[in-house]
Amino acid sequence: MIRNSYASWLFSACAFVAQPASSTDVGTVRPFDRDSFTQIRSAYAHKPLVVHIWGLTCGPCLVELPKWGQMKKAHPDMNLVLIQADEGSVDAVKVAVEHAGLKGVESWSTRSELDEFERASIDASWVGDMPRTLLISADGVVTTIKGVVDQRVITRWLATHD
Amino acid sequence: MHTRSRQFLQLAQRAGFILSVMCPGLLAWAQADLPSAPMHQHARVDAGGCVGTELKCATAVTPAFDAHNNLWVAWVAGGAVSVARSTDLGRTFTAATIIGQYGESIDFGADAKPQLAIDAQGRAVMAYGVFKDKAYNAQIWIATSASIWEKDGPGFGVPRSLSSDPASQRFPVLSFTSTGRLFAAWLDKRTVARASKQGRAQAGAALAYAWSDDAGATFSGETIAEDNTCECCRLALAFDALRQPVIVFRAIYAEHERDPAVILLNSEGKPALLRRVAEDHWFIDGCPHHGPSVAVSADGALHAAWFTQGKARQGLFYARSENHRQQFSDAVPIGNVAQQPGRPSLLALGNHIWLAWKEFDGRHISIKEQYSNDAGRHWTNERIVAQTDHAADHPVLIAHDGAVFLSWATRDQGYRFIKLEAS
User: Fold this and answer.
1) Nearby residues of B311 by Cβ (< 8 Å), 6 or more positions away
2) Which of A100, B49, B181, B222 has a CA between 20 and 30 Å from the CA of residue A159?
């Protein structure tokens, strides 16, 4: 659905004012577009990477997010990238991320709801259900987990992909 | 966008943001009930630059016809909920009337749409969700008009909460019965909140409903029809041959199996029958953001269409029930499963059934349609009704004067209102 409204307008304004262009920047929320996932993959090429996709209006996502904060705290070396996939202001995303104990983690957010084109840039078969987690090994093999993750799966994956 | 325009927008938006922080009440509940001006604006516009509250920037649109052949559309854009009227089947619209402005608080969930119902006397009701806290709990707002044909505009009053319950409520659907009663249903977290207080975990939400005998001025008999519904998928509402509400929704079975179900209310307005439409076994502890569609044909058959990623089947499916919803036919796949078919819209006109849906082939978003002239027993081949290469709303089918139309908001082509051919 088109979601290019007030919130995304605010997002654009905030992004323009506060967002540096560097792909290595962390601690801010960067606007996600059709090219962003390629940038993310490129930035973490040949490294194990966990990509967690969540949404502000997705109740299970909001319940789960603090568990990712705990996971990051327990595994500070984990390469973790967050993608917020609902419409919503950059400030709202920052609040939720920080509340979950994920401040400083590389975080992206769509300008509007992720449309078909943006979803396809991540996974051609993804129809928009959330949350979703991608475990990407150093050699590029992607394992997709749909729905809330059993964090023990992540722990095991990290143990074998560090 | 030109640099100067962008700078202006940034300044304007930053001013708006500061205003929203300093004066949230002012911004959130500002009521700009603008009179309809005689000037007209064209619905179709160039792509890009959509930052305002106009129809061209709409993210979710719902159409409705009144008894004087006017097409009305309700939409969300720029944080506002608006309506406008067209006397030429969507080619041009009157100036918009803003019902409420909510900024970032408007329900921007992927399956949320403002609702609009108009009865034969011109009484009109709008309903939509608004987030009320940082946990994204929502509230359903209702705005009513005693006559949408008022000379100075559609006459909607100040929006008010549908329910007094403090729990989160989203995804309203509403419709007038043929006798003028108004029925509303929505997803409600009150039983989940109660369970939480008692230390019990309860997934999802509940399906709630209420009736109004004064066209939405007041609602009575708020009832939880069913617990264990998906909390982030729209509801689908129709009336059966006995004028009783039929709701198809995404229920939660077992542990996080989010499959379609139907509920029927009896003549006392109480839940009378609950059936699983299909055993897809879509297990997901998460949000599909993808609700079903329902229609009832003149022969009494119920038609359902839904999306699933279940163990039993994946894609978009259709099924019908001829025996008063006791049983459904086998699920029939719809569209090209390789192209993400979804977002169904069913419509029945007598025993003629139309089904529209959305597909994405990697380059184009298409709205496809197929048609049955024997109450869903046989269908035409699918055909593409419209396409875009940019973001687009979910399709909605609507009937008027014996014809069926597709209502569709696109980013690059503006609002589309397209007559479907029954062939």
Assistant:
1) B280, B281, B282, B283
2) A100
Query: Is residue A56 in a domain?
Result: yes
Q: Is the pTM of this model over 0.95?
A: no
Residue B24's contacts (CB-CB under 8 Å, 6 or more residues apart) are: none
CATH for A128: 3.40.30.10
The number of folded domains in chain A is 1
In Å, how far from its chain's centre is CA B39? 29
Q: Tens digits of per-residue pLDDT, B365-400?
A: 999 999 999 999 999 999 999 999 999 999 999 999
Helices (H) and strands (E) in chain B, counts: 3, 29
Mark which residues 357-376 of B lie under 8 Å from A by CB. Answer: 360, 362, 365
Any domain includes A127? yes
The answer to whether residue A76 sits within a structural domain is yes
A1, part of any domain: no
The C-alpha angle B412, B415, B421, rounded to 5 degrees, equals: 110
pLDDT tens digits, residue range B278-333? 999 999 999 999 999 999 999 999 999 999 999 999 999 999 998 766 789 999 99
The DSSP bridge partners found for residue A144 are: A134
The DSSP string of B250-264 is EEEETTTEEEEEEEE
- Among B104, B258, B390, B415, the residue to mutate for chain A (most A Cβ within 10 A): B104
What is the rounded distance in angstroms from the CA atom of residue B341 to the CA atom of residue B361? Answer: 10
Q: Which domain holds residue A151?
A: 6-18+27-161
Shortest Cα distance, chain B CAs vs residue A45, angstroms: 25
Task: Count Cβ atoms below 10 Å from residue A26 Cβ, excluding itself.
Answer: 12
CA nearest B51: which of A36, A18, A112? A112
Q: How far is B373 from chain A (nearest CA, A)?
A: 30
Contact A86 B109 (CB under 8 A): yes
Phi, psi (deg, nearest 5) at residue A19:
-100, 115
- Tell me phi and psi for residue A64, to 5 degrees: -75, -30
Q: Is A148 on the interface with B (CB under 8 A)?
A: yes
